[in-house]
Design a protein that fits this description.
51% of the residues lie in helices and 12% in strands. It has 110 residues and is mainly alpha-helical.
Length: 110
């Protein structure tokens, strides 16, 4: 698999992952009975925590080492290219607040 760099494409895919993360967490918490402001707060907290782990912003220990995940995306018609960040890691956690606000603005009561 060939590694490629495209900051615009990478950012767009991070935003898509953030939106999917918020949507899935929200659906699970709604199914569990959460509603309104408690739902929004829980979705925001859980999605942010998970994104922090993906991005290496949360401390994850493995034996004697600190783990820093690097998120890559398989792209191309044959999924034979790996889109990775040019420098550093991902920043999915930075998209979460805006995605949560957008999600709850479009359907606030649910």
């Amino acid at each position: 698999m060939r590694q490629v760099h495209n900051d615009v494409a990478y950012e767009g895919l991070q935003a898509a992952v953030a939106a999917a993360l918020v949507s899935e967490v929200r659906a699970a918490l709604q199914q569990a009975g959460l509603r309104g402001s408690k739902l929004k707060a829980a979705v925001s907290s859980i999605a942010s925590s998970v994104a922090d782990i993906y991005d290496g912003a949360a401390y994850v220990e493995s034996g004697e080492d600190y783990v820093v995940p690097i998120v890559g995306f398989a792209i191309g018609r044959l999924r034979n290219q790996l889109l990775v960040p040019r420098e550093g890691g991902s920043s999915i956690h930075e998209f979460i607040p805006g995605v949560v606000e957008e999600a709850f603005a479009s359907a606030p009561g649910a």
